[in-house]
Inverse folding.
């Protein structure tokens, strides 16, 4: 019972595609299967993580998303004796999917906004609140849609916190900053500067620097120069434990939002990419998060004001926490694997 996952990670695309695939891969392992990741971009830290999880990593030489990429993926699937292939990335368009299906393999496409012109996959999974059947009108009759937060892919580290209860203090003195695996625009530095301007006694922060983030030295220099009570952490594996420690978070609008919701951690979202904007808006409408908008139009003073307000508003944070826990149930990976094997 072998599974092949095709996903990439680098500074520009971040690590989110690979990380949510890791959650699905862990559930596949739990069901007794074996997992291989195929990737066209080198990401040594992530690859070491996958290998430590007992998963194989194979490098493909073709440009990502091309017909040759699809053919190399098929050849790898045949070599590994794989029935199911999972693809996660906006480069995997209709031609890619059609080649995989014509090669006699079952295909699951993890999607966010209906990026392909036509869907040939057996299953399309969109775990977002904005997921809608209208994104996938151009699909094959056999294509099954798994839509919404009931299918959120959470890694094992989160599932052990399912019955944990969060306490909400009067003032949130512990801030977690997590802006993705890459953060090419170094928005993390702007958040650090905002924290430095907040006049709140005892405030401390942990700032996560992702595996593909090239700005660690600049961030470290800013922390030392500012004299802030801030710790930088790189390549964190137990994100759930840090979310349990924190009392408020600043996050990009990617898959981390679902992890924060599951952990009941109130958060401020900064939109870093177009595919993050709809989710950030809906999460604010649902009262799960506060949407600060696009990073390139967000003024420093406004960021400081929004974060300080959230830190000091106990009632708002309490409601965010409760609504987040109701939104994500933690059953997503197991539900998807069960459907794949049925």
């Amino acid at each position: 019972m072998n599974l092949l996952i095709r996903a990439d990670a680098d500074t520009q695309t971040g690590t989110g595609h690979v990380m949510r695939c890791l959650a699905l891969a862990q559930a596949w392992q739990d069901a007794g299967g074996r997992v291989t990741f195929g990737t066209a971009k080198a990401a040594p830290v992530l690859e070491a993580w996958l290998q430590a999880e007992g998963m194989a990593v194979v490098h493909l030489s073709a440009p990502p998303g091309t017909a040759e990429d699809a053919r190399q993926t098929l050849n790898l699937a045949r070599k590994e004796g794989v029935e199911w292939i999972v693809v996660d990335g906006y480069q995997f368009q209709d031609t890619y999917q059609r080649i995989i299906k014509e090669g006699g393999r079952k295909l699951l496409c993890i999607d966010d906004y209906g990026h392909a012109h036509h869907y040939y996959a057996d299953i399309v999974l969109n775990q977002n609140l904005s997921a809608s059947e209208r994104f996938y009108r151009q699909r094959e009759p056999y294509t099954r849609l798994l839509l919404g937060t009931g299918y959120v892919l959470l890694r094992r580290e989160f599932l052990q916190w399912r019955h944990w209860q969060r306490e909400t203090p009067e003032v949130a003195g512990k801030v977690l900053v997590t802006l993705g695996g890459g953060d090419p625009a170094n928005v993390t530095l702007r958040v650090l500067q905002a924290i430095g301007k907040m006049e709140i006694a005892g405030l401390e922060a942990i700032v996560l620097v992702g595996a593909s983030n090239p700005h660690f030295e600049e961030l470290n220099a800013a922390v030392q120069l500012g004299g802030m009570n801030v710790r930088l952490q790189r390549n964190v594996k137990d994100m759930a434990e840090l979310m349990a420690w924190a009392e408020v978070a600043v996050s990009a609008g990617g898959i981390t939002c679902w992890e924060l919701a599951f952990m009941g951690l109130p958060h401020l979202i900064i939109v870093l990419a177009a595919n993050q904007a709809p989710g950030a808006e809906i999460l604010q409408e649902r009262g799960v998060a506060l949407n600060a908008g696009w990073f390139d139009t967000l003024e420093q003073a406004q960021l400081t004001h929004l974060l300080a307000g959230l830190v000091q508003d106990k009632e708002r944070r309490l409601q965010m926490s409760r609504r987040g826990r109701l939104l994500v149930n933690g059953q997503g990976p197991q539900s998807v694997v069960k459907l794949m094997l049925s």
About this structure: The chain has 13 helices and 13 strands. The first strand starts at residue 2 and ends at 7.
